[in-house]
Prior knowledge:
- There is one protein chain.
- By secondary structure, the protein is of the alpha+beta class.
- It is built from twelve helices and 19 strands.
- The strands form five sheets. Strands 2-1-19-18-17-16 form a six-stranded antiparallel β-sheet, with helices on both faces. Strands 13-6-5-4-14 form a five-stranded mixed β-sheet, with helices on one face. It has a three-stranded antiparallel β-sheet with strand order 8-7-12, with no helix packed on it.
- A hairpin with a 7-residue loop joins strand 7 and strand 8.
- The longest helix is centred in the last third of the chain and has 24 residues.
Amino acid sequence: MSLSRRSFLRAGIAFGAAPGFALADPLAMRPPVRPAIDAGRVVAAAGLAGEVGHALLDARGDALSLGLAARRMAPASTMKAITAAFALDRLGPTHRFRTQILRDGDALVLVGGGDPVLSTDDLAALADALVASGVTTPARFTVWGGALPQLPQITPEQSPHLAYNPSISGMVLNFNRVHLGWGSGGAGMQLQARASRESPRAYTVTAAAADQAALFGYRADEDREYWTVSRGAIRRAGSRWLPVRLPELYAADVFQTLCRARGLVLPAPEIAIRAPQGPELAGHDSPPVLELVRDMLKFSTNLTAEVLGLHASGRADLGSSGAAMQEWLGDAGQGMRLADHSGLSSGSRISAFGMARILAGPGRDLDLPSVLKRNPLSEDLGADPAQTHEVRAKTGTLNFVSNLAGYVTTRGGQQGVFAIFCADPARRDASVGAELPAGVSTWTRAAKSLQRDVIAAFEATLQS
């Protein structure tokens, strides 16, 4: 029932209370309206295994459609929409993160400024600038990553070989990933710091085929990482990204190789234990925060989300940083738990109504619709030729978790804010950290199809 109709009925009831007043049938005074599709019936008819929470708010933040809307569920990557607003507000859309080469006494220092998208190509440009400055071989070469907390991984729940769960540091290179490639049977296995133009070998990380049951094995000492790969999994040539756990040495090693190719020989790198001081010899700025946020939402990069969140909060770990983001939300953050900034941790819990409230409040104030992906379900389901509305939203996917949260605009211009959270808790708990467990692809596609149908119901509600 629309607000205007509610107001009309309230007025009619008030008049009807007056003695001798004959109340006309309010429905007879209105043109016929096509019945709205009920989102709850759409959910029930779909029969998706698990539970579905949904909330639709109008442009003023009033609830129009709710179903299990207070149930706290894992937000998955829809959390990144909150992180985007947090970073835009706390850091500002024009802020940049600078990577520097400093001269500190007898040492040349590679200083990480927490740029989440620094690439090997960017380090190559720094090497060019450094060589052009006329610098000679220093007595020492060090690297500093203390601009951010240094954490071995985003969450220990995930399998250690998953590239979307890398280490965190103020020194980030290639999203703290290394590219592993191999020929048939594992021949010619190599690890590269791959970028668009430059792809030098990564000497601080090694990989070898092994007779083992596990797909990957991993260990590390102070200055090197060692991966083993099951021979049975590499009978054919292939490649994949692996996470880096020693990011400072990885970046320093790559920079040393790039400088050597340009005629500048640097000593073996060391990790700086204090913040360096001294004149800057070369520097590189990240894109502005607004661009980082847009790309983070488009590609759903976990590391960018965590780095931006840590920069914005200034806290020492992800748990306290997530709590700081919740504090920033004020009343809109009540009743939820934010354990990180990417949604990768299963410790985070948000209700569909809570998410919609955030998007309707801080999200709209900070113009999130302009940076969210347009009609994201089309990527997995294909374009719907019958669709007459536009969606700007963030998806969120974990094993047996599929969420969508954002904004919908009807063909007539009516606007709504929504969140649809789908989860199969039993299968989710049984598959945390697993890579493509049985049945997850079919379940996820069914959940996305349901989300598309629920948004169609939302459109009808907004137009009624």
